[in-house]
Amino acid sequence: MGMRSVARRNVLRLGRAASAEVRAFWRARPVRPDVVLYESFAGNGMLCNPEAIFRQLLLDPDFAHLTHVWALSDAAAERRFDAEFHGHARVTRVRRGSTAYWRELSTAGWLINNATFPPEFGKRPGQVYLNTWHGTPLKLMGFDMPDGAFESANTLRNFLSADFLLAANEFMGATMYEEAYRLHNIYPGRIIEEGYPRTDRQRVAPGRATDLRRELMRSGVVDTFGKPIVLFAPTWRGSSFSAPEDDLDDLARQAAALQAGLGDRAVVLLKTHQIVHRLAASRPELASILVPNTIPTNVYLGAAAALVTDYSSIFFDYLSTGRPIVFLTPDAGEYRDVRGTYLPLDALPGPVTDDAATAGRLVGRGLEDPVPDERYREWADRFTPHDDGHVTERVIDIVFRNRPEGRRVRPVRRDGRMRLLFYVGGMRSNGITTSALNLLNAIDHERYDVTAIMPLFRSAAARANQLRIPREVRQVFRIGGMNGSKTKHLRRRVDDWKGDPAAPRELAWHETLWDDEWTRVFGAADFDGAVDFSGYSPFWANLILHTPGVPHAIWLHNEMAADRERTVRGRQHLRRPLGLVFRLYRSFDRLVSVSPRLTEINARALGAEIPASRFVTVRNLPDVDRVTAGARLPLATIPTENAPTPEWRAALESGGQAKWFVSVGRLSPEKNHARLLRAFAEVHARHPETRLVIVGGGPLQDALRAQIAGAGLGGAAFLSGAVDNPFAIMARADCFVLSSTYEGQPMVLLEAALCGLPIVTTAFASAADALPSGGIHVVAQDDAALRDGMIAFLRGDVPPSRIDAGEYTAEVLDEFEALVERVPVRARRSR
User: Fold this and answer.
1) Is 721 exposed, middle or buried (0-12, 13-18, 19+ CB in 10 A)?
2) 309, β-bridge pairs
3) Ramachandran assignment for 14, one of left (phi > 0), alpha (psi -120 to 50 degrees), beta (any other)
4) Whole-number Å distance between alpha carbons of 518 and 152
5) What percent of the chain has pLDDT over 90?
6) What CA–CA distance (Å, rounded) separates 459 from 444?
7) How many CB atoms lie within 10 A of CB 410?
8) C-alpha distances out from residue 549 to 123, 155, 415, 525, 655, Å
9) In the structure, what pLDDT confidence band is assigned to residue 241 with cuts at 50, 70 and 90?
10) N or C: which end of the chain has fewer CB within 10 A?
11) pLDDT for position 144
12) What is the Cβ-side half-sphere exposure of residue 91, based on CA atoms within 13 angstroms?
């Protein structure tokens, strides 16, 4: 099994490499301005708005020069396509994901999609991308969904790449595009609010309606001749497109009860969401009423005498017909709580019921008296005001004829805030993540529009930290990999291996790789400043440096030269990556250290080719509310790996005469917990009532546990492991101790001061200005000095540290504002 798994992975790896080479080849070919590529629902058929636009362009003599290509992935859709267009001189198809698909996606001059192109797609200069989406939203979308930032990563990427976004109405333009997907301020394209072209297809001529019924019968659907069609179109209820959750048994029961309520007055046909159609088609009890996925939904709507739906956006299109709509919502409360809606379910433009048979009876009444009531007309006026049968013509005028005059087309709303892009790192539980989250929480979001870019991580810890990002911050995830030929990437890696990477704007081939990657990730998004807050990755430093036309800053969280030489388990893991980052420092406009002393150290060690003026200081910020709230929580709220209460927690909770020292930090070499344990062993020998708990996880955990045992400190010194709330532990300890060899501005010292703890620390370079008002007992970097500092606390010679959080926060935000708003003109370069 193991060998087969390895072989399978190798085959997949080779397949990805081959696909990357195919994309690279075609992306190097010229864009063909007379080719239009259409894709709908990931290739499920010639459907929705793209289909309506395609048919209008095909018939218009002004566009006889255009060649039309459909990307399809469904065999039934391909058969239907071939039956209509086989041999057509200007119409062809490709299989989605094939070599031919990548040729068309990479070189077609016009791209039209109602959903998303794959993560590997990056729009090229000379291509025009119209994203039509596929419905006015009733249910929450984008960032408004639970975990929406994560789920919407590729959708947001596609929207930012599009030149035009099509909205069915003004509500959709503002609510979905600008707000739910946070496109306000940064999206440079245009929103078209002329209605949906697909609604033109609802105007079905009598002869076409007869043809449709015949086609339904040929596909295995029950005979509908002589009876009105009632279309039952429930929404998809899942929260992730990768895991459909529809209950098909329940769907079958609802359809049967709906037909029973109607009796023989009409025929119920089922239209499912694209994502679950194949599952429904596999069920015999549904297959006979399931309409083919390959026929545009709006054709069915045009032929339907009534519609039954729940939360699906399909009913917005149907409003323009004036025909009856009944809403079947058996799980309204649960759906509202889990997914949520933009509009109240008790104000929908038609009767609402939770019983399918009742819905059938309500439909029957609607068929007898189909005149819309006042609420229906109000909804139609609001959501389908432009659906007059000529929507497609107007959209083509705007996009293909470049005639926006007199049309409803506009830029996104801009509110004048400064637009900042932050790379916040991989969101692991460490000091950099804490610093990033604290800054993002403290920034004045009425003054700054902030975007955080992250890798698409999967670990539980990273996801938990990501969920702490404030709601005001737009989150973008990098998904997929870089485009470009393997030859170029090999050349880039060889240069990196030699320690001589190309500087931004230095080599044309190098620039093409990085500019393409920036565009693939961010589309054409506009920013006013870009920050690499992490500061440890050459890849991300390069990507941030390629943010066009803005100043760039990188954070230096430590004594970077010393950090580069850090050895863990005999290996210097940071030597090569930090060496590459150091080579890029000269291309940044600001190099930001987190304390004044650290700025001096980094400028002296790294600034041989960099003007001293580029080295600046922005100190770290604590999350005052989080520290204060965490300190109040009982220790029992701290989760433990094993069910029994850990010995350290039981002892700390019991109080008594013990004096507790606490240290918080990653168990890695620069923190030098080994020195702390040696010093504590001497303190404990003289003062047996003392205890020590070290909070944190890391690569040296086993070594430190062995050291505790070897020194006979069992029952006196403890490792708690990593915990989400160290403040509950700190608040119950008596003295905070830091034994680091080097640091930046340790966030943990600010947090210890907020907890009112006396602080003893070794004299790393930035220790003197770690707190704004001093108040730290600093000792030399040796065992004896640290021992004596801890004993000084026991004598009462180390008073509690204090910090005026409000005053300090205001000072740091002034430093940040000076950084982002006072940048030399030379930095505002463009591609």
Assistant:
1) middle
2) 233, 327
3) alpha
4) 18
5) 70
6) 30
7) 14
8) 19, 25, 20, 11, 59
9) very low
10) N
11) 94
12) 18
User: Mind listing the pLDDT tens digit for each residue in 685-737?
Assistant: 999 999 999 999 999 999 999 999 999 999 999 999 988 899 999 999 999 99
Q: State how far the alpha carbon of 644 is from the alpha carbons of 639, 640, 641, 649, 714, in Å.
A: 11, 8, 9, 10, 18
Look up the pTM and report it: 0.89
The per-residue pLDDT for range 777-814, each reduced to its tens digit, is 999 999 999 999 999 999 999 999 989 999 999 999 99
pLDDT in tens, 50-82: 999 999 999 999 999 999 999 999 999 999 999
pLDDT score at 825: 43
Q: Dihedral of the CA atoms 96, 101, 107, 110 (nearest 10)? A: -30
Contact 329, 307 (CB under 8 A): no
Q: What is the 3-state secondary structure (H, E, C) of 83-114?
A: HHHCCCCCEEEEECCCHHHHHHHHHEEEEEEC
Tokens 């297809």 sit on residue: 201
Q: Which residues contact 689 (CB under 8 A, 6 or more apart)?
A: 657, 658, 659
Separation CA 280–CA 353 (nearest Å): 24
Question: Token match 């992306």: residue?
Answer: 27
Amino acid type, 678: R
**pLDDT value of position 239:** 44
Nearest-angstrom CA–CA distance, 608 and 175: 51
